[in-house]
Amino acid sequence: VRLFSNFQSQVIFSNELPREGFERAGSFLLYDEIFASKDGENQELKAWIQEFKYSMAVPSGEDLKDFKNFPKYLELFIKKGGESLSRNHSLVVLGGGSLGDFGGFVASIIKRGVNLIQIPSTWLAAMDSAHGGKNGLNYGQLKNQLGTFYPAEKVFIVRPLLDSVPDEIKEQSYGELVKMGLVGSSQYFKDLMLEQRPALEFMWRFLGPCIEDKYAVVLQDPYETQEVRQVLNFGHTLGHVLEAHFGWSHGDSVLQGLFFALAWSVEKGFLSKHLHQQILKALSEKMDRAPATALAWYRPPAARVFHKKLLGDKKRDASGELLFVFLKNIGQPHMERVSVDAIVAEAQRQGWVR
Ligand SMILES: NC(=O)c1ccc[n+]([C@@H]2O[C@H](COP(=O)([O-])OP(=O)(O)OC[C@H]3O[C@@H](n4cnc5c(N)ncnc54)[C@H](O)[C@@H]3O)[C@@H](O)[C@H]2O)c1
């Protein structure tokens, strides 16, 4: 196990894809195959990809993170030049959070660890998953059961790359963005509530504070042993269940998990009804988002289905309880151990399950 004393990656904002800052000659580029398949589009990106001696395109998504598929991808990686990597070479990962999680894990085990460079290509990855050193593979229907802590040496935030992301994929970052805005220490969620324009129009303003807030939490408790880093799981308890059950994107699932956690915080008396209404209003007006339970198409599954999935949550302790993140105020999360039964009962009360 490599223990890192510093989880703070060097975050570099740039107007172009990086050509320096890591040793290129022997590095390996792992990238989302969408960048190879879009014929004729983004020639500059394609030319940049071709400058790498070793590279491999992979499909994004949870299948890439599925442990079942890992031997196949790892073998391909080794054949494509992964075996020639050595400690001082870099694995450069260009893609969203799924590529980052897969690539981060590979970087941590290949030759017992090579340098990791992340170039997030989705907003979710740029504001959240590329930072903080967690990676992960899924096992069966359960998310991130296998993984290591392995921070990237550098994270390049490339403006034209993120500007080119279609709106519907940009919107998938709302879950993690709102999460950080609610539990973090900066002002940006309050700004969002005051802003007149839709959130999509001022995403760049959120990005820096969101990243800073994440490092502020991670650096206090990098290995998640102090009951500090767990605040970043806000919205994830129900979120992961929804993601596995319905196959919704991670970001959308987390946002729905936040609606659940917020309503439960009100029920428990932690969060005022007034602030809850203000938050719901901001999410509806600026992001066009509402709890799925209020929407006509939502079909609540049976409670036992959720119960079984919650039992697989890796954050559950030996007594079968989970550290659940509630909210008291903006910037004031509150964690409490709750039983799986209590979560299911609350999910039933709110209409997430029947
Ligand atoms: N390690 C962590 O700390 C952490 C934190 C949050 C989420 N995650 C993980 O991240 C994953 C979700 O991340 P994601 O939403 O970025 O997933 P993703 O990698 O699946 O990307 C989402 C979609 O966007 C496409 N895409 C990527 N870049 C694009 C671009 N520039 N233009 C157009 N389309 C593009 C992908 O092909 C895919 O279809 C989940 O697996 C989640 O568990 C990890």
What does this protein look like?
The protein has 354 residues and is α/β, with parallel strands linked by helices. It is 42% helix and 16% strand. The protein is built from 15 helices and 10 strands. The protein has helices at 34-37, 43-50, 70-79, 97-109, 123-129, 159-163, 167-170, 174-183, 188-194, 203-220, 236-246, 250-267, 273-287, 303-311, 340-350, and strands at 10-14, 28-32, 54-58, 90-95, 115-120, 137-139, 142-146, 154-158, 321-329, 332-339. The protein has a 6-stranded parallel beta sheet. A two-stranded antiparallel ribbon has the order 6-7. The protein has a two-stranded antiparallel ribbon with strand order 9-10. Helix 8 runs parallel beside helix 12 and helix 14 (303-311) runs antiparallel to helix 15 (340-350). The longest helix is centred in the middle third of the chain and has 18 residues, at 203-220. The N and C termini lie far apart (44 Å). The structure holds nicotinamide-adenine-dinucleotide. The site of nicotinamide-adenine-dinucleotide has 31 residues, from helix 4, helix 5 and helix 12.
Strand and helix layout:
Layout: E1 10-14, E2 28-32, H1 34-37, H2 43-50, E3 54-58, H3 70-79, E4 90-95, H4 97-109, E5 115-120, H5 123-129, E6 137-139, E7 142-146, E8 154-158, H6 159-163, H7 167-170, H8 174-183, H9 188-194, H10 203-220, H11 236-246, H12 250-267, H13 273-287, H14 303-311, E9 321-329, E10 332-339, H15 340-350
Parallel strand pairs: 1-8, 2-3, 2-4, 4-5, 5-8
Antiparallel strand pairs: 6-7, 9-10
